[in-house]
Amino acid sequence: MKLIVGLGNPEKRHENTRHNIGFEVIDEMARLFQTGMTTGKGNFHHAKITHRGKGVIVLKPMTYMNLSGHAVVAAMNFYKIPVEEILVICDDLNIPLGSIRLRAKGSAGGQNGLKHIIQCLGREDFARLRVGIGRDHPSGSYSSFVLGKFSEEERKTADSIIPECAEAALDFVVHGIEHAMNRFNRKNA
Predict the structure, then answer these.
(1) What number is the average pLDDT over the span 2-18?
(2) Which positions are catalytic residues?
């Protein structure tokens, strides 16, 4: 069983913000498999899917971004999923909009959702898919940028990368992180 986690913030006011692109990828995966999200035991929404004979839980923490680790650990414990079988999808303001980067492990890189997951797990060695939300942000306070909505032009670019993110996550499910990295990472990311 694999666990694919898309990070974001709950509440309607956060929909379509840069910070919620992880949620959008999970929604795309649920759409592809024609399933809806249900409330899980641990402050998360999830759906169970099967892809090429492999069981997958797609999950959206219903905590705020900075507390995502609680929902991830709850799901891992409930479904008995080891850390080697999880992929976390999040926004990254250091990657150009329209680019993605997969990694087998690493630091939080300033992403507070990843930071909390690392804190709760006590380790950094879990796979992640970072979705670029743009490097063209004002210096200083990044919170207004990541919590802001995409411009109309940016939204088109974001919408075009979401299916690729879902495909990369499904590649991870079938072939593992190394294969997904080799297939989807690009030099410009």
Answers:
(1) 91
(2) 19 (proton acceptor)
- The b-or-e profile of 12-27 (16+ CB within 10 A means b, else e) is eebeebbbbbbbbbbb
Average pLDDT, the chain: 91
**Number of Cβ within a 10 Å radius of residue 34:** 7
At 140-181, the pLDDT tens digits run 667 778 888 888 999 999 999 999 999 999 999 999 999 999
Distance CA 181, CA 171 (A): 9
Residue positions forming the annotated binding site for tRNA = 14, 64, 66, 112
Distance CA 171, CA 149 (A): 29
Cβ neighbours around 121 below 10 Å, total: 16
Going by the annotation, the residues of the binding site are 14, 64, 66, 112
| Coarse DSSP helix, strand, coil percentages of the chain, rounded to the nearest 5 percent | 45, 20, 35
Query: What are the two backbone dihedrals, phi and then psi, of residue 83, each rounded to the nearest 5 degrees?
Result: -60, -30
Q: Is 98 helix (H, G, I), strand (E, B) or coil?
A: coil
The per-residue pLDDT for 41 is 75
Calpha distance 82→105 (Å, rounded): 14
Distance CA 92, CA 30 (A): 22
User: Quick one: 64 exposed, middle or buried, by C-beta within 10 A (0-12, 13-18, 19+)?
Assistant: middle
pLDDT in tens, 77-123: 999 999 999 999 999 988 999 999 999 999 998 899 999 999 999 99
